[in-house]
Design brief:
The chain has 144 residues and is mainly α. It contains 4 helices and 2 strands. Helix 2 packs antiparallel against helix 3. It binds protoporphyrin IX containing FE.
Amino acid sequence: MDSYAAATVDLGGYRALDPLQLSESEILKRIYDKEDPMPPLDADKQLTESERDQIHKWVLSGGEYQVHWAFEAPVKPQVATVAGVHFNPIDAFIENRLQEQGGRILSRSRPGSFSPSSLTDSDGAATGSSIPSGLPVGQGSWGL
Ligand code: HEM
């Protein structure tokens, strides 16, 4: 199950994930099997009904997945070129994301003097508030 290729390989008349007959996938049989269930009966973690439902839906929807990110070799991303940003590469990534979401960095703060008032809202006006409205709150974009 580490890779899509391994999950879909012919295991002698059946496949953990059968892309041509999704509902015949061994995964589906085994997560409901009383005799030989997966995870095994003595496994520390068992599936809940809602997890079984999720796996079921995922398989029937095609069961596609990518290799786990931990097995992907890191690739150095190209630093975005963003008009008006001449600070450092991290600023360029942040500015790029902010622009996609309707905000932007107004000016550079001196190190140690970060102030929310240096950020603008989506109309370009300085917000001055502690949580600028141009920034998406609660979407992980505060990982500065
Ligand atoms: C949601 C969790 C799991 C799913 C969907 C799953 C699914 C499957 C499937 C479809 C097979 C058959 C593939 C084949 O015949 O080669 C299999 C085999 C196997 N699985 Fe799992 N598995 C799960 C969790 C686990 C866990 C937690 C363990 C060990 C603690 C485990 C141990 C094994 C072993 C030893 C086999 C090969 C022997 C056999 O077919 O019984 N599996 N699993």
